[in-house]
Amino acid sequence: MDEIRIGLTGLGPRGRHWLKMLDNFNGYRVTAICDPLTELHEQSLEPLKDPDPIAVYDKYEDFLNDDNVDAVALTVRCWEQGALAAQALEAGKHVNSEVPAAHTMEDCWRIVLAAERSGKVYQLGEQRRHSGEFAAWRELVRDGKLGKITFCEGQYIGYKESYRYHRLPGTAQFVPIEDLPNHPEAEPTWINRMPPIHYLPHELSPILMVLDDRVIEVTAMSTRSPSYIHEEIQQPDIQLAIMKTAKDTLMRLAVAYTQPTPPRDNHWCHIMGTKGSVELARSLKDSPKLWLADAQMHDHAEVDWKPQRTDAPAEARGSGHSDTDYYIHATFRDALLHGVPQEFDLYQAMDTAAPAILASESIAQGSKLMHVPDFRPGPNRRKGEMPR
User: Fold this and answer.
1) Helix (H, G, I), strand (E, B), or coil: what is residue 49?
2) Which residues contact 371 (CB under 8 A, 6 or more apart)?
């Protein structure tokens, strides 16, 4: 294989962004697109260099039956996201999926078993793990500069535009909350009902990479549903998870999409060890910080860490999400075309999805402590089989 014939399903804004990237990305050839909303087909094809040979589908099963598709770029937003990924793997396609990997534990296991049985590559396209600041932090942790990591906290808190939560039935037309009185027929989107904590992989992925660790226990709490900000939104305003890792690190992580905040990066993270700590900027007036206990430092020092990597190739510039979108396509390509081992593999992807799903289940069961399975084959599970 000298190029990846890739098909993309899910032609929302994020899917169209991926599609344009893949159309210009060395090593890929877009051969098919799929979305049940046919009105999105033409506008998705229009910006592409040569749309004529690209097959167009409105049924996912027909899309998966296309022998001209080696791999699926999955950019959907729905409860069945994990099942769609597993279905593609079962059909013999490699999968590069948008965050999160799945919304149920059953679908997490289905993805794992389908990838193991098919031998196909599964990648979760989580881009924050490729940010420059986390590359720097990983080196500090690996070199022992921060000592034993005892505590981490992170958050993805902000306000998502009001138009995301409702749309006209059978169309791609979103209806802003302010305009709902004029459109009583508008229906809630999946985002309207999705537990915010399900999007925790954007925090867990970089943190677990820095720590080289995985979560083993989680409990969580939530504000009420519906939102206090907009009662038309069924999401709670904020959900909070407390976690423990295999290396005995405690973590406090929060997610909120309806919380008004001043303009800033909606992500924030802080890591504390026995010999020092690091944290990201809290606001546009703030800077990332570093403190080392054995370096004659009486306070935190400001450090010019940014998401943009200083070692990024030229083609990464302007790719999106502070240049990190480039890496989710480059690593998938290199795994398929060149056999490069995945730095973020199938099991690590599930390490980010399962704690978020179980945090939501913990909330539903009165903050019950939940145990997170290890998806890797071992004494209690043979490859391709469910645990005994």
Assistant:
1) coil
2) 216, 217
List, for residues 280-307, the tens digit of each pLDDT value. 999 999 999 999 999 999 999 999 999 9
Does a cis peptide bond (omega within 30 degrees of 0) precede residue 100? yes
Find the length of the chain: 388
The label of the residue with tokens 């996201």 reads 81
Using alpha carbons, select from 197, 277, 296 the residue that is nearest to residue 243: 197
Q: How far apart, in whole angstroms, are the C-alpha atoms of residue 344 and residue 10?
A: 23
Report the pLDDT value the prediction gives residue 162, as an integer from 0 to 100.
Answer: 79
Give the span between the Cα atoms of 34 and 63, in whole angstroms: 7
Q: Which residue has the tokens 């406090």?
A: 252
* Residue 96: alpha-carbon gap to chain centroid: 11
Over residues 310-334, the mean pLDDT reads 97
**pTM for the predicted model, two decimal places:** 0.97
On the question of pLDDT at 161 being above 80, the answer is no
- CA 141/CA 276 separation, integer angstroms: 10
DSSP β-ladder status, 149-157 and 267-273: antiparallel
Instruction: Sort 70 into a burial class: Cβ within 10 Å, 0-12 / 13-18 / 19+.
Output: buried
Tokens read off for 19: 């599609």
Give the DSSP per-residue string, 78-91: STTHHHHHHHHHHT
Other beta carbons less than 10 A from residue 374's beta carbon:
16
Which of 241, 124, 257, 242 has the alpha carbon at shortest distance from 190? 257
**Residue 243, CA distances (Å) to 57, 128, 151, 246 in order:** 42, 20, 10, 10
Q: Please identify which residue in the block is written with the tokens 């990997």.
A: 101
Looking at residue 145, its amino acid is K
Distance, in Å, from the CA atom of 261 to the CA atom of 288, rounded to the nearest integer, reads: 19
